[in-house]
Write a structure and sequence with these properties.
CATH superfamily: Response regulator
Number of strands: 7
Order of helices and strands: HEHEHEHEEEE
Number of helices: 4
Helix content: 25-40%
Strand order of the largest sheet: 1-2-3
Largest sheet: 3 strands, parallel
Strand content: 15-25%
Shape: globular
Distance between the termini: 34 Å
């Protein structure tokens, strides 16, 4: 997988979002190269199945959102709207852990980031009260 060369994109404004199928060989390099070229562009990685090593590798390569092909149309539009409205805030990986950290009612809670039902990352879910979905 190869992205256009810098000469081919010279003068082109950075895209708001790029969607990359992260499973083919070379896809992770394309993710990293995209984030290096356009750091404020939202990079969405697509996987066949939720969770697992490929999901974590895609995040480590620079994906701002990793989702299954079936959930992309549901998850990307609201996330993209928030991404565009954000004043420079971006999701970053601080530790190579598979945990999600939440501030709930004055307490810090740490839970496994993998949803036991769908395998998606809970840190991408919406939190209401003490429930993450």
């Amino acid at each position: 997988m190869q992205l256009p060369s810098p000469d081919q994109v010279a003068g082109i404004e950075a895209p708001v979002a790029v969607v990359i199928d992260v499973e083919p060989e070379g896809a992770m390099a394309a993710v990293t190269e995209t984030k290096e070229r356009w750091p404020l562009t939202m990079v969405v990685g697509l996987v066949s199945l939720p969770g697992g090593g490929i999901w974590n590798h895609a995040e480590q390569a620079g994906c701002d959102l990793v989702t299954t092909r079936g959930a992309v149309t549901k998850l990307v539009p609201p996330r993209l709207a928030r991404w565009i409205e954000a004043s420079g805030g971006r999701r970053i990986r601080l530790f190579a852990l598979s945990d999600a950290v939440y501030h709930v009612g004055g307490d810090i809670r740490v839970v496994e980031d993998d949803c036991p039902h769908a395998g998606a990352l809970l840190s991408y879910g919406e939190r209401t009260s003490t429930m993450v979905s």
